[in-house]
Design brief:
Blueprint lengths: L1 H22 L2 H7 L4 H17 L13 H27 L2 H8 L2 H11 L6 H20 L6 H27 L5 H22 L9 H25 L5 H6 L4 H13 L5 H28 L1
Helix pairs in contact: 1-10, 1-13, 2-10, 3-4, 3-9, 3-10, 4-8, 4-9, 5-7, 5-8, 5-12, 6-8, 7-13
């Protein structure tokens, strides 16, 4: 039993690293797209739902243990849809580094919800990891932050995206131990798609792209950051506490900055390099906290 728990924890940690890699490409693909935020968010989830639909016929087990799990999964899908809309809208109004850094404050919301509702302790190392992660994220974005009405709007939307993402991850912590990955993800993605469609039709903010390359970008958003990124997060939620899953996403600003440098020729400032190093230290601390917590429980 002890060996099995250690293997499960190690597997969860490896999955998180791979998930962060794929998720880090989301901001790049969104910046390349020229469509409105609601359109980008909708088609990302639409293609993601279609991809999950391919594996649904091969799933033979019971989907949900009761109506409560189904309703919570639907609520989780609405939260995910709101996360994608607010974050994409924020990313379009501000810089990549600012938006990605702000949206990664979601571990604060996850940790708070986990502490007050699930009674999960985060320990001294966890508190230090949060502080270092936020400090590093601030340093990465400091050189890019220029407060003006448009930029401020993007910052606030990105923070709203962090709140909805943190709430989504927290809901997953309730559901993943009881609901298998395929029914959970398909229901969440399908609900998210429907919620974004309703949002777009209500505010007339959704339309069919005029350029064919947009559909390719939407497909890549679905395949990489969503199917191969968020699905791995959902897998990790079954094997790890919500806190380390949430804070591991702080690695996204580091990788997104690197991709931005390569693709958009955005050379990072000294503060970006220092902040990236601090964030890496935060992730190391959280992984150490994860291992220590697992060993204590054994």
């Amino acid at each position: 039993m002890a060996i099995s728990k250690r293997l499960s924890s190690a597997r969860g940690g490896a999955v998180l690293i791979i998930g962060v890699f794929f998720v880090s490409w989301a901001s790049i693909l969104i910046k390349l797209a020229v469509s409105e935020p609601t359109t980008i968010a909708f088609f990302r989830m639409f293609f993601s739902t279609l991809m999950m639909l391919l594996v649904v016929p091969f799933y033979r087990r019971k989907w949900f243990g009761g109506r409560r799990d189904l309703l919570l999964s639907v609520l989780s899908g609405v939260l995910l849809g709101l996360h994608f809309y607010t974050w994409v809208a924020g990313l379009k109004a501000t810089s990549i580094s600012s938006s990605v850094v702000l949206v990664t404050t979601q571990p604060i919301f996850v940790a708070m919800l986990g502490y007050f509702v699930l009674k999960e302790g985060i320990g001294t190392r966890g508190v230090m990891a949060i502080a270092l992660g936020l400090l590093g994220s601030f340093l990465v974005a400091r050189g890019d932050l220029k407060i003006d009405p448009t930029h401020l709007r993007g910052d606030l939307l990105s923070l709203a995206g962090a709140f909805f993402a943190g709430s989504y991850l927290f809901m997953g912590r309730f559901l993943r131990p009881r609901v298998d990955l395929i029914p959970y993800v398909f229901t969440v993605y399908g609900t998210s798609t429907a919620a974004l469609l309703v949002l777009g039709l209500t505010f007339s903010s959704i339309s069919l792209p005029s350029q064919g390359v947009e559909y390719l970008l939407f497909f890549l958003l679905a395949l990489g950051p969503t199917i191969l990124g968020h699905n791995l997060y959902n897998y990790a939620l079954r094997h790890l506490p919500a806190f380390p899953v949430g804070i591991s996403i702080l690695g996204e600003p580091v990788l997104a900055t690197i991709w931005g440098m390569i693709i958009f020729n955005e050379l990072p400032l000294v503060t970006t390099l220092i902040g990236g190093a601090v964030i890496i230290l935060a992730i190391i601390l959280v992984m150490t906290h994860m291992r220590t917590a697992t060993e204590v429980s054994l």
